[in-house]
């Protein structure tokens, strides 16, 4: 098992991409700390599924946009698991609207969760990784952050910010043996895309060269690779997992 004995923090781990990553890590031997915003039942179910692989799993309610709270939770996880080896910043929200009608609070909310949330977790694990002289940081960006997307000024800006944050942290921590990379998913079959109409889904599939949406497991397998020893000499990269949507 490629992650045996490792411990991973996965934000937004109760559903979708975060859930898939947490379970892929657990299946490969990693203990997992699931951070979730509100659905305690879903988070506990993921922990139960993870523990079926013989690893330790615990869930923590945490608003990742809250700097002090993320610090408290990281401290709890380190104490409970004896350390952290992998951080996956996946938590995210959407508040879509054209700039003309976008509310200030909706712009701020998305930036706070999707971008500042990643900074908060990195900030509070930074010294721990430095002392260990090892670690993997994996940030979930989006192709929307690379190419922009009408109606998503807040989301695209946050995900573009993730790219800059990833490259900066990679440069800062490389000499300490810590890697920092990002994954940029395209259209992925999650609760978020599940709410789209069939017409919108058909239009989306039509834009994808592979003519279909990806699955959360597609992202999870990329995260698994980036967390493994096989990716020990890869840092500062943004890997698109999008079926060719943005070539």
UniProtKB/TrEMBL annotation:
Its EC number is 1.1.1.100. GO terms for molecular function: 3-oxoacyl-[acyl-carrier-protein] reductase (NADPH) activity. It catalyses: a (3R)-hydroxyacyl-[ACP] + NADP(+) = a 3-oxoacyl-[ACP] + NADPH + H(+). Pathway: Lipid metabolism; fatty acid biosynthesis. The keyword NADP applies. Coiled coil: none annotated. It comes from the Bacteria. SUPFAM superfamilies: NAD(P)-binding Rossmann-fold domains. Residues 6-191 form the Ketoreductase domain. Keywords: Fatty acid biosynthesis, Fatty acid metabolism, Lipid biosynthesis, Lipid metabolism, NADP, Oxidoreductase, Steroid metabolism. Belongs to the short-chain dehydrogenases/reductases (SDR) family. Catalyzes the NADPH-dependent reduction of beta-ketoacyl-ACP substrates to beta-hydroxyacyl-ACP products, the first reductive step in the elongation cycle of fatty acid biosynthesis. Homotetramer. This is 3-oxoacyl-[acyl-carrier-protein] reductase. The lineage of its organism: Bacteria, Bacillati, Bacillota, Clostridia, Eubacteriales.
